[in-house]
Amino acid sequence: xxxxxxxxxxxxxxxxLDMSTTKRVYKFGNKTAEGRADMKNLLGGKGANxxxxxxxxxxxxxxxxxxxxxxxxxxxxxxDKVIQTIKEDIEDxxxxxxxxxxxKFGDPSNPCLVSVRSGARASMPGxxxxxxxxxxxxxxxxxxxxxxxxxxxxxxSYRRFIQMYGDVVMGLKPESKEDIDxxxxxxxxxxxxxxxxxxxxxxTADLKELVTRFKxxxxxxxxxxxxxxxWEQLWGAIMAVFDSWNNExxxxxRKLNNIPEEWGTAVNVQAMVFGNMGNTSGTGVAFTRDxxxxxxxxxGEYLINAQGEDVVAGIRTPxxxxxxxxxxxxxxxxxxxxxxxxxxxxxxxxxxxxxxxxDDIQQKLxxxxxxxxxxxxxxxxxxxxxxxxxxxxxxxAAMVKIAMDLLREEKIDEKTALLRVDPARLDDLLHPxxxxxxxxxxxILAKGLPASPGAATxxxxxxxxxxxxxxxxxxxxxxxxxxxxxxxxxGMSVAKGILTARGGMTSHAAVVxxxxxxxxxxxxxxxxxxxxxxxxxxxxxxxxxxxxxSLNGTTGEVYEGQIxxxxxxxxxxxxxxxxxxxxxxxxxxxxxxxxxxxxxVARNFGAKGIGLCRTEHMFFEGDxxxxxxxxxxxxxxxxxxxxxxxxxxxxxxDFEGIFEAMHDLPVTVRLLDPPLHEFVPHEEENQEEMxxxxxxxxxxxxxxxxxxxxxxxxxxxxxxRLGNTYPEISETQTRAIIEAALNLKKKGIKAIPEIMIPLxxxxxxxxxxxxxxxxxxxxxxxxxxxxxxxLVGTMIEVPRACLVADKIAETAEFFSFGTNDLTQMTYxxxxxxxxxxxxxxxxxxxxxxxxxxxxxxxxxxxLVEMGTRKGRSTNPKLKVGICGExxxxxxxxxxxxxxxxxxxxxxxYRVPIARLAAAQAAVKxxx
Length: 927
Ligand code: ADP
Ligand code: MG
Ligand code: MG
Known about the structure:
Layout: H1 2-21, E1 25-29, E2 32-33, H2 40-55, E3 63-66, H3 68-77, H4 79-101, E4 104-105, E5 111-112, E6 114-120, E7 130-134, H5 138-148, H6 151-168, H7 182-194, H8 204-222, H9 230-244, H10 248-256, E8 265-271, E9 282-287, E10 299-304, H11 310-313, E11 319-320, H12 323-332, H13 337-343, H14 347-350, H15 352-369, E12 373-380, E13 383-391, H16 396-408, H17 414-420, H18 426-430, E14 433-434, H19 436-440, E15 444-447, E16 449-452, E17 455-461, H20 464-472, E18 477-481, H21 489-494, E19 497-500, H22 508-516, E20 519-522, E21 527-530, E22 535-538, E23 541-544, E24 548-552, E25 557-560, E26 565-566, H23 572-584, E27 588-592, H24 596-604, E28 610-614, H25 617-620, H26 624-633, H27 637-661, E29 666-670, H28 684-694, H29 698-708, H30 720-725, H31 727-746, E30 752-757, H32 763-784, E31 791-796, H33 799-803, H34 805-808, E32 814-817, H35 819-827, H36 838-843, H37 860-874, E33 879-882, H38 890-898, E34 903-906, H39 911-926
Parallel strand pairs: 4-5, 17-18, 18-19, 19-20, 27-28, 27-34, 28-29, 29-30, 30-31, 31-32, 32-33, 33-34
Antiparallel strand pairs: 1-2, 1-3, 3-8, 6-7, 6-8, 9-10, 9-12, 10-11, 12-13, 14-26, 15-25, 16-20, 17-24, 21-22, 22-23, 24-25
Bound molecules: adenosine-5'-diphosphate (ADP) and magnesium ion (2 copies).
């Protein structure tokens, strides 16, 4: 007891010491920084890169970063405790900013304003909150007007601050989805009263009026006055940013991208620089390469006399940074060269010196990070400042091209290039494209910007939550919005494509769609959306909710109706990447395929054989089911053999087709697995038909169906339990396989069958089946006076099989882990019923992920590892693979590599993903 007390006291002292010695705030500014790029876990991506940019001499406004650990403390200990622990550090941080900027926070005679910015370890663009222009009040305003001599700018900044702070900290948000933002509504009213269209047309007096109305709205809604004390504002904002880690959209984004809940966000407090100080100021976003296509072309968008979010929010049409980009844009937007130069000049033409500096910096940043960068910058009265850099989000196609280009440019090596591509994103490249012929006759409705490549066809829906509802019912939807916001994320993720009327290539819609690998056309100005009537109008023609349209995200075209699609071309960089993967991988990849068509698709994607060919599908089609039913309903072996004789030629033909498609490569054929009652007729009508066919009474059929009923079919009469009770089934299937292979041999085609016994749990179960297979094969060889090579092995999917794997492997020639069933049986979760509780388990954090999607390495993985190890202990040549759904899931593939499997097998369209994931596993192991 006493020892326990001492232990607890020691622990408390240790905690206290940790609390008091941990560094919680990291300063940066004036080309020095306490943090570094490799401190993302602690400083968040934004904070780490702000520090790094300082270190390499890029102009960045000074500031400090509050660590992600403080966010965790905030969630655990609460607000007051956290304020107490960081108060001194924050005051010190502000003092440092004041020193560098030569101004004072909250001092009307020489004020310093700051932004308070969120920033997690992994970039979550727009998901959490940021507040600009903090530190303003009526007193500071006077000082700032004097300092800048620009009254309009000051009031514009103030109204923006109230808007952001009112939303983020004080909670003034739209009340329903049809409503617009309460502040935007006030602006719209005032604009109507003043008869102006653009925000920029509002006069200083108008802006003052806005401030008054904003403050009144705040008071009316919250009962509180808008805070005037800058320190109160600062603490409110810092806490709100911590809170924003837990807002709904951030939570959803984390789920979508597998970002752990416990990471927390850092908070960056940074001196403000102003892009809204007049015509020598501006703000923009840029990419060092094209995020859609991957082309090595510096590009981006900017606005003159604007602040931060304006470019991304799609409120004004942004201009292009480079002349090249501007000319390309004008062509798409059908703007004449004359008008382009006059109204939409590029930054390169408009501010050549700033442009040159920016171009130098973008190159410097890309060279430094050796990857495509996504930058934010602001120009304040002719001086350029960088506010953010990060590895840019990109489409799957761009991901591949950029990695291959950087390799060609010798900026990264082969292994790094392999690791640069997220295997899951290869999916984007495999998506269908529009059929070129169908496209020619299609009617173009409008043209927008090619914001995210791909082809999409679907029904128009105007609200994100309704997109979810429609999609849940199995509809293909195109989400059409004036512009999108982070609130729309869920709807965007289920839509086939996204179309916006406003916003450029860096608008929210565009960036998020590219990140999701989803087709998007943005800024299609010809489209007039009316949320209230749920209609859109294009050139005088109305389209309502539910109408079909098609989008081409590669060209920006919007078409009427549905358009046919075709397979994409997969040569070039994709081929090169796959070649690299093969060079560095240890495991190879097979496919799960039951038809010649799937086999061919998989082979084109580089499958080195079939890892799982299920035979039950072969029995369902057309008339075959009748013969199958006859077999099942038969009363004795003789009756079963009669029916099996009908099935033999059909099966043989199916195998010939598959073996031929996979010639020279191994094909693992699994003998019949599912419970018999799945095949028998349950409807009266079918029962009658079967009775006629077999010449027995319908009562007999009904009795037989009842007899086959099982309480727990998943654990019932299936797998090798079928073959061991009705050996003639295994016999016939073996005969079909071997005869098919011999038939092909005659035609000069080499088939390499591997016969797989399903659901083995004991050594004897396997040995009895093996005997049937080998005896039958020998019999056929004798009949035909010819032979072929084949293997006999088993699927490992019953936990017991893993425990006695050494025994089974004494005669088995291969193991293939059936991790779907193995997961089901290890957890005891019925795959057919888990829908009722698994989502809740994941939601509540009882499980991190669905173990049927991502292999549970901790539990099920132990069995897989043990099965492999034990199996090889008695049979060193044992071939080991996986054929469960997990075989195409990158994290699970990596695990399979680590336990020493020879191959993974997955569905045809996942083959490239698995090839890359397997190579990455090998590369990571070597590092
Ligand atoms: P997000 O994570 O949503 O991109 P940011 O923290 O990057 O949010 O800020 C939003 C916008 O405000 C960006 O355009 C950014 O460049 C701008 N911004 C942030 N801090 C400052 C600052 N100190 N001075 C000028 N602009 C800023
Ligand atoms: Mg470049
Ligand atoms: Mg940003």
